[in-house]
Amino acid sequence: MAGRVVTISSGKGGVGKTTATANLGISLASLGKKVVVIDADIGLRNLDVIMGLENRIVYDLVDIVEGRSKLRQSMIKHKKFEDLFLIPAAQTRDKMAVSPEDMVKLTDELRDEHDFVLIDSPAGIERGFRNALEPADEVLIVTNPEVSAVRDADRITGLIEAAEKGPGRLILNRIKPELVKKGEMLSSDDVIDILGLSIIGIIPEDELVLSASNSGVPVTMNTDSKAGMAFNNVARRLTGEDVPFMNLEEDAGFFRRLVRLIEGR
User: Please, are residues 51 and 25 in contact by the beta-carbon 8 Å criterion?
Assistant: First the structure.
C-alpha cells in the first residue's frame, strides 16, 4: 500500500508549524512507521535544526530537483530512528526552483517505500505553499487560539478546498486553559465554530517545547512534556487510532489547587 503524503500548513508564521512537523515525524517513527519529512520552505529552512540534523546536510531539496544529487543521497537519517529521514530545504536558492509538479514526482517516488511523507509547508499562500499542497493526500492546518491566527487559517482553508485537497484538519497549538476559562483566549469549540473543521490535535502551552527545539531533541522524546504527549496522540490519530483528547481543563484545575496548597490558601 502506498504511503500517505500529509502537508502541515498554516496561514501565518510563528504558530508552531515546523515544530509540529518535526514532532509528528518523531512520533510516527516511534510507532514503527517509515517516515520522510520534507522541508519545503526554500530560503528559510528550520526543520533540520529542530530535528538536530543541521550538521549532516550535504544535499537539499533543490539539489534533487535540479539533478545534482540522487534522492537517497539527500535523505538524512535521524540519529535515533532508523526509518526516519529528512530532506532539507535549500537555504540560498531561488524559491521558484521547485514546482508543484516537481513535488508530486518526488513524493510519488517516496510513497512506495514509506508509510508517511510529511511536508513542512511555508506559511502563507505563495509558490512554496502551492508546492507543498499539490502532492498532499491530507492537510493539517496549525493555528493558535488567537483571532488573527484563526483568520489566516480560514484563508488557507479556502485555498485548500479550492484545490480539492480538503477538508483539512486542525492542530490547535499553544492553548492555555487558564486563559480560555477567563475568556481571554479562544477555546477549541470557538475555533471549530469559526473554521468549520475538525480538530486532530490540541497542544497545550509548554515551556519544554522551546528548550527542546533549541537542543534539536523534539519534545515528543520528553516523557514529562504535556505537549509531547499531545503530539504523540496526533500521530496515533493519523494512523487511525481512536485516541481521546487530553483533559487540559482538569490539568489546569489540579495546578490551581496545588498552588493554593503551597501558598496555604
Answer: yes
Residue 202, burial from CB neighbour count under 10 angstroms (0-12, 13-18, 19+):
buried
**Residue 187: how many CB atoms within 10 A of its CB?**
18
pLDDT at position 1 is 63
Is the peptide bond between 88 and the residue preceding it cis, with omega within 30 degrees of 0? no
Contact 6, 140 (CB under 8 A): yes
Contact between residue 116 and residue 33 where contact means Cβ atoms under 8 Å apart: yes
- Tell me the three cell numbers of residue 188: 477549541
How many alpha carbons fall within 13 Å on the CB side of residue 38? 32
pLDDT of residue 93: 64
| pTM of the entire predicted model | 0.90
Which residues make Cβ contacts (< 8 Å) with residue 30, sequence separation at least 6?
Answer: 81, 220, 232, 235
Q: For 94-135, what is each residue's pLDDT tens digit?
A: 778 899 999 999 999 999 999 999 999 998 777 889 999 999
What was the pLDDT predicted at 254? Answer: 40
Which residues, other chains included, contact 151 with Cβ-Cβ below 8 Å and sequence gap of 6+?
A: 11
Interatomic CA distance for residues 172 and 202, integer angstroms = 5
Per DSSP, the three-state class of 228 is helix
